[in-house]
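S.,

Sequence below, as promised.
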Amino acid sequence: MNELLLLVAGLVAGAINTLAGGGSFVLFPALVLVGVPPVIANASNTYASLPGYASGAFGFRSEIARHRDKLIPYSIVALIFGYLGAELLLRVSNETFVLVVPWLMLFAVVLFAFGGRLNVAVRRLAGEGRGRHAGAILLLALLAAISLYGGFFNAGLGVLLLAFLALAGMTDIHAMNGLKLWISVVVAAVGVIRFALSGAIDWYHGSIALVGVTIGGYVAARLAKRIPTGLIRALVIVYGLGLTAWFFWSAYFG
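The prediction came back faster than expected:
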């Protein structure tokens, strides 16, 4: 039953990631539910999500190539601070992580719910010139903070990266999505390597979830035009809020 639950959770998470984002809201708690310790469940979730990031980045390869001047500095920052985020996760006990997870979930759900408005506001700021004139060091410092968060807890990373790229002055949404996915690949890959070296990935349960995520993402991409994205987003938000409330109750009152 555990294997079936993870496969179904992976299918749903992969489909949600393709259609609206937010698949971690399904996959991470499913891993916890089948008995994977919270820290290892978080690391395994990153492992299961990595192929989706990589295939998405490959699909935007031409758009990414047009901004190759940004790839090296962005990749270096994502590599260093994604690793530090993963290292931080490994130094947190399961007991402490259980107390932190509800707040991370709440932050991620709020980002998911209001991410569109956030990106519009940031894009407007960038369009007015203030974003373009922001210091390069400050922009890289912001990317460092986002990568640190992504290495520690994967949910909501895409929304933060889109906001960062808008603040950096980008307006082409396809190029932004491509770079978002590329940075996500770097952060997730260095995290997976670090988690693997420390034995923090549940390869068995994580691989079942990975298969589900891959299949779910592919099927959803084929059916994307038939499924209303707004409905999916609304369901994810409601589910995410309910899940966050459950994590708060379990951590502080259970």
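Residues 2-252 form one domain.

Coffee later?
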